[in-house]
Write a structure and sequence with these properties.
Length: 272
């Protein structure tokens, strides 16, 4: 008996689903923080993906630095176009015995030296500028000053230490940093500096940087790697607890607002 077209299509769809399920990479569960899978690179702009994505970001940063240096070089050329003729004119006048030209020559040389120093300082700052200052995508200018400073410190710690860590420890480090960043954001509105807000700020300002600095002074052994991952897990777990508590508080506020609206509008509707 020839099977119907509907039966054939159903079997084909089922088979394709099974094949996709078999070839799909295993899904990694969310971290302990409950923040989604922060351990997957590329899901968060703070985490640098390796490979082609990392090369593209590096090329973009180099292009931005090159453009900045090009602007400085252009300013230097324009300054020289103005500076050198004045220097020549005042030098000739001074050689001809026009005494005020000597003062003008000295002032011109001083201004030229100050301009040269200023250009050099700006070039050094541009070369040493953190990546987040070059990339508008990671700009946090709209954040409160304290939160912005703490996030800048945390991001600096991430950029300083992530490449020196082996893969397993880097995963734990990324998870702890992203959990701390999110905990900073959910506790930023705390009016009083309670235990949660204090722990979050200490994690960003001292605990994580000091842990990584200490780790880099010890030999890279399996025992030290395991201890680093354990301590990073402690930090991530504490940050996850803060986030979960704040989310629960906001959920209660939302429900309370719903009860307020019910009392406000449902009672009026029933009265009418």
């Amino acid at each position: 008996m020839v099977p119907s077209v509907t039966t054939i299509l159903t079997v084909a769809r089922t088979g394709s689903r099974v094949v996709r399920a078999l070839i799909r990479p295993a899904h990694r569960g969310g971290g302990r923080s409950g923040l989604g899978d922060v351990r997957e690179l590329g899901h968060d702009p703070w985490l640098r993906p390796e490979g082609a994505g990392g090369l593209r970001r590096q090329a973009s940063r180099l292009a931005q630095r090159g453009a900045g240096l090009g602007k400085l070089a252009l300013q230097g050329v324009l300054g020289a176009v103005v500076f050198l003729p004045l220097l020549l004119i005042f030098g000739v006048l001074f050689a001809l015995g026009f005494d005020p030209a000597g003062w003008l020559l000295g002032v011109t040389l001083l201004l030229g030296l100050l301009g040269l120093v200023r250009t050099a300082v700006r070039a050094v700052r541009l070369m040493n500028a953190p990546d987040e200052e070059l990339n508008p995508e990671t700009s946090r200018a709209a954040l409160p000053a304290t939160l912005q400073a703490d996030e800048t410190t945390l991001l600096g710690t991430l950029r300083t230490h992530e490449r020196a860590l082996p893969p397993a420890s880097r995963v734990a480090f990324h998870a702890a940093v992203i959990a701390t960043r999110d905990a900073l954001r959910v506790s930023a509105d705390d009016i009083m500096l309670g235990r949660d807000a204090f722990d979050v700020r200490q994690a960003a300002r001292e605990d994580i940087p000091e842990l990584l600095e200490t780790y880099r002074t010890v030999p890279s052994t399996p025992a030290n790697e395991a201890e680093l991952q354990r301590q990073l897990g402690l930090i991530e777990g504490r940050m996850a607890a803060v986030i979960q508590d704040r989310n629960a508080q906001r959920g209660r506020v939302l429900k309370a607002h719903g009860r307020y609206l019910e009392n406000k509008y449902l009672e009026k509707s029933e009265a009418e």
